[in-house]
Amino acid sequence: MRADVLVVGGGLGGVAAALAALRAGRSVILTEEFDWLGGQLTSQAVPPDEHSWVEQFGVTASYRALRTGIRDYYRRHYPLTERSRGWTDLNPGAGWVSRLCHEPRVAVAVLEEMLAPYRGSGRLTVLQPYRPVSAACDGDRVTGVTVGHRDRPDELVELTAPYVLDATETGELLPLAGVEYVTGFESRESTGEPSAPAEAQPMNMQAVSVCFALDHVDGDHTIDRPARYDFWRDYKPDFWGDRLLSWRSPHPRTLEIVERSFTPNPDDDPLAVNADQRLNPGDGNLWTFRRIAARRNFVDGAYASDITLVNWPMIDYFESPVIDVPNASWHLSQARELSYSVLYWMQTEAPRPDGGAGFPGLRLRGDVTGSADGLAQAPYIRESRRIRAEYTVVEQDLSLAVRGAHGAVSYPDSIGVGMYRIDLHPSTGGDNYIDVGSCPFEIPLGALIPQRVENLLPAGKNIGTTHVTNGSYRLHPVEWNVGEVAGLLADFCLERGESPRAVRDTPRLLADFQDRLTAAGVELRWPQIAGY
């Protein structure tokens, strides 16, 4: 099969890339390994992690359309109360982590709506569930990618396109195509980063997590005791301050050992939730932290319980990386086993506020995550392989401690904006949280240009960041922005007969491309407001 643009990976970056190229008139092949498009927003079941100004500015127009579409979907199809229906910035889950917490399936529906006209016209072909198995190259160009069916590995399809975008969760095309890349922690000598170690640690990567959804209803819904439950119940990381399976864990910003509460179905007012990470990280009561359905947003009786999404400290699996290791599938299975063990512990042994133990009414909601085994379809991958790029974003480009009142570095080749603290979860090298204040930052085009390969572009978390700055660039709106720009860049290069490298290196081409981005609703700079 052949198209103008091949997008391998149907997560947020992949969908954004496909949409951008399709809207520009290109034909696109989009592949995805899991049953749902949308990646961390859907198959990984992670509610959006966004900055505090998301309702006003700081995201692309198409990402804003996705958010609006999710709210409109609830208004069209869900039995909202009149009060919640009239809530302009509707937060269906009233979760504290984000101003828009919602059930993953709603995002799937909206993404499919956005893609539907291009499927109908025949300009978009979606191969699902397919994963890349090999790539062919001619010098510095990728000439083809072979994908295999996830469940029938002998079913192969050969794909070709002038431009190939790697939007996979782990940068899977990079080793297949021989693209130079980095993993794990770079050394302080190579990056100059205050938070980097003296020597590089390529196998030191952030934890992965297998999320799951829960409600709390009458009855005993305790799952079977997991096979390795005893191991995880007794597991006590050196830096954790208690067993991993407990309500106690390090505070990400201070590393002080804190105890969080857990109270299912508090009778709180959804409209009173102010999900602003500047004011409150929101994780005091884990139930409301990533809640994705607040029953009081809906008419009486519609929901027997809130639904909460478990992406909490105790499900972080940092025993081993799952990238560039021979037993990655085993470790992913152990990450799932950890999540089951956390659930079983909550159902049977977790301390309750009344002095008792266990919450047997907790019910696994695999129907919400679309998975037969009850957990999210896919693991939440925080850190990918990253291209060796023309420009690598480093900590001192955006660290609030380094930049202060100067703000983040402004790049002449900016192709978008983002904002999130440098937020690194415990890692496979034994590191605790690394959580550093960040300035609102820009995304440089140079971070999307491989040092050698000419027609492969990263379209997700595999851009030229470091282990440290990945902590800011890995979140939902930035991944979408990167993917959207990769799709627009492929179209621009096809139209002009130029390479991505030439676009960055030629002032006239760069200015024209940035104008194209602005016209498409991509913000290149953070606003500076002045009186008049």
From TrEMBL:
GO molecular function: oxidoreductase activity
Annotated keywords: Oxidoreductase
Pfam families registered for this protein in UniProt: FAD_oxidored
EC number per UniProt: 1.-.-.-
Gene3D superfamilies: FAD/NAD(P)-binding domain
Keyword Oxidoreductase annotated: yes
Claim: Amino-acid biosynthesis is one of the keywords in the record: no
Record protein name field: FAD-dependent oxidoreductase
Organism, scientific name: Micromonospora rubida
